[in-house]
Amino acid sequence: MANLILLNKPFGVICQFRAATNKTSLAEFIKLPDFYPAGRLDEDSEGLVLLTDDGSLQARISDPRYKLPKTYWAQVEGEITPDALHRLATGVDLKDGMTKTAKAKRLKHVPLPPRNPPIRYRAQIPTSWISLILTEGKNRQVRRMTAAVGFPTLRLFRSQVGSWKVDDIGIGHYKMLKVNLPVR
Questions:
Q1: How far apart are CA 85 and CA 125, in angstroms?
Q2: Three-state DSSP class for residue 57
Q3: What is the pLDDT of residues 31-48, one digit of tens each?
Q4: What is the pLDDT of residues 102-151, one digit of tens each?
Q5: Positive or negative CA dihedral for 121, 124, 129, 133?
Q6: In order of start, what are the domains of the chain with their CATH numbers?
């Protein structure tokens, strides 16, 4: 059995315990020893970050071989089009190669409180929300994908990794679980 922490990471927090600068780190939220992130989430992204005290579990969660799906909610600039959603789902050509197929859909409602600080607001430009489910993890992938199809990301929230969800965890709070995953 391994311990797994599901943290709802706030905006502006870096996914490491020691900040090289005066940035807010995971140490502000997780006071338990010997826990390490299993994967990363950018400083300007919010949502689910998994941490564990078990190296095998950390590798299993992070390793692309296991293709754990990751669900992101992105608030994008403009009214997302069916063509853009199709392109996101079938793969986008980025500088470091073509992305794998994904699941992309428009969302009518996202149950998130306002972000602090708030996103950039433009009265003349609407925004829309999409859900994007990926099985790979290129650097800043969601942001680069939405920009490549003409809809820059304004806010990014990861709601799920594999079967683990952030559903009932408040921003800046966490839940600890005991897990037993087979390691191949």
A1: 19
A2: helix
A3: 999 999 998 899 999 999
A4: 999 999 989 898 888 888 877 788 999 999 999 988 889 999 999 999 99
A5: negative
A6: 2-64+165-179 (3.30.70.580), 69-161 (3.30.70.1560)
| Distance in Å from the first CA to the final CA of the chain | 16
Q: Which of 42, 93, 96, 167 is catalytic?
A: 42
42 is catalytic: yes
Q: What per-residue confidence (pLDDT) applies to 70?
A: 96
158: amino acid identity, one letter: R
CA 32 → CA 27, 56, 80, 109, distances in Å? Answer: 9, 19, 42, 35
Say which amino acid occupies 174. Answer: Y
Element (H, E) at 152: none
pLDDT, tens digit (0-9, with 9 covering 90-100), for 144-161: 999 999 999 999 999 999
Cα–Cα–Cα angle for 75, 76, 79, nearest 5°?
Answer: 115
How far is the C-alpha of 172 from the C-alpha of 7, rounded, in Å?
7
Q: Residue 70 to residues 41, 67, 80, 141: CA-CA distances in angstroms? A: 11, 9, 21, 12
- For 68, other C-beta atoms within 10 Å of its C-beta total 21
Chain-centroid distance of CA 24 in Å reads: 18
